[in-house]
Structure formats: C-alpha cells, structure tokens
Amino acid sequence: MEILLFGIAKDIVGKSSFRFDADDLVPTSVSELKDRLKGSFPEFGKLSSLAVAVNSAYAEDSDRLREGDEIAIIPPVSGG
After folding, report:
1. In order of start, what are the domains of the chain with their CATH numbers?
2. 23-to-18, 20, 55 alpha-carbon distances in Å
3. How far apart are CA 45 and CA 21, in angstroms?
4. CA 69, CA 56: separation in Å to the nearest integer?
5. Less Cβ around it within 10 Å: N or C end of the chain?
6. How far is CA 24 from the centre of its chain?
7. Tens digits of residue pLDDT in 16-53
8. What is the model's pTM?
C-alpha cells in the first residue's frame, strides 16, 4: 500500500511517499489509517482536517482499504 503525501503532510513525514513495511499490519479503513498516521506522526493531530483519496477518488472514514491501494493524504489548503 503506497501512501502519497502532499503539502504540510509531506513536511510532517519528511518525504513525499512511503509504504507500510511487510511486517506492519496494513490499515483496513480510512479511519484506521488516519489513527495510524496520528500515532506515528503526532503533528497530524494538529491539522483541522485531512482528506484521503483512495485510487484517485476521495474516500470517507468508513471506506475499506486493500493491500494494493494507492492512497493520497491531502491536508487542508488555504489561499485565495
């Protein structure tokens, strides 16, 4: 499962993408993924919102994740 990071999410993690190791349990839902991100990178907890796209489509917290999914973490964007 590849996780792509954008904006401040990229800054928090320190790279533009990462994969869960083979030894890691892959999150099974978007909600679980968000919890794992906040547990591994506490700065995610400070964001006002966090959008997640799974295979190029925005996902809800209850959406299920599978091993081969491509996931994008999209933080809040400001500007005009």
Report:
1. 2-74 (3.10.20.30)
2. 14, 8, 23
3. 23
4. 10
5. C
6. 15
7. 998 876 667 889 999 999 999 999 899 998 888 899 99
8. 0.86
